[in-house]
Design a protein that fits this description.
This protein is an alpha/beta fold. It is globular and about 45 Å long. The mean pLDDT is about 100. The structure holds D-xylitol-5-phosphate and zinc ion. Zinc ion binds next to strand 2.
């Protein structure tokens, strides 16, 4: 299991001490949410913040771009130090466009993920699963931290676990939105590999809460 604290819920007046606490915990990734105010009704971080956090943390930088233009923003965040760029299937007009963004990210030597929102059919990911490193199942409508988990994520995760194992693929399954100790147990039992958690971690003691999630595995 991999735990990826979502920096969206961080206390930004305490950035360095919180990065240190994460470093001392079982979390090995940082989840960095990029919102463009167009694909989702909110704005979050630009590339300079990503580059600065990169300088102060050697954890794996998991960048989730909730943007209408994944071509442009994948480049921008690769330059800012992303280890993985996850973009949204719904942001692309065609299968060809999805494949071209995947290839563009791969060509830069960066890992690539594809995400779907709660209302998108999980089967629409099938043409891409063998070509990507990670699938991100959104268990809230993207845009804000602190929302409640939408349970239809569980069947999607179970289907993907079955499909990935059956076809002997290595794609990771990540879940993002409304994760706490109860929902984490459900998504792990359904077959998820990577847990993103924002408000649950940052509204409590960071290290203890990450340990609680870690001990569920
Ligand atoms: C939502 C973001 C999430 C968010 C999760 O658009 O993609 O990463 O920060 O926050 P919580 O864990 O509070 O639901
Ligand atoms: Zn996210």
């Amino acid at each position: 299991m991999i735990i990826a604290p979502s920096l969206l819920s961080m206390d930004f007046t305490q950035t360095l001490s919180q990065l240190k606490e994460i470093k001392e915990s079982q979390a090995t990734w940082l989840h960095f949410d990029v919102m463009d105010g167009h694909f989702v009704p909110n704005l979050s971080f630009g590339p300079d913040i990503c580059a600065q956090i990169r300088k102060h943390s050697d954890l794996f930088m998991d960048v989730h771009i909730m943007v209408s233009d994944p071509h442009y923003f994948s480049d921008v965040f690769i330059r800012a130090g992303a280890d993985l760029i996850t973009f949204h299937l719904e942001a692309c007009a065609s299968e060809e466009e999805v494949l071209s963004v995947i290839q563009k990210i791969r060509d830069k030597g960066v890992k690539v993920g594809l995400s779907i929102k709660p209302d998108t059919d999980v089967k629409s990911l099938i043409p891409f699963i063998s070509k990507i490193d990670l699938i991100l199942i959104m268990s809230v409508n993207p845009g804000y931290g602190g929302q409640s988990f939408i349970p239809n994520a569980l069947d999607k995760i179970a289907f993907l676990r079955y499909y990935i194992d059956l076809n002997k693929l290595s794609c990771l399954i990540e879940v993002d939105g409304g994760i706490n100790a109860d929902t984490a147990k459900l998504v792990l039992d359904s077959g998820a590999d990577v847990l993103v958690a924002g408000s649950y971690i940052f509204k409590h003691n960071i290290k203890e809460t990450i340990n609680t999630l870690w001990n569920l595995k």
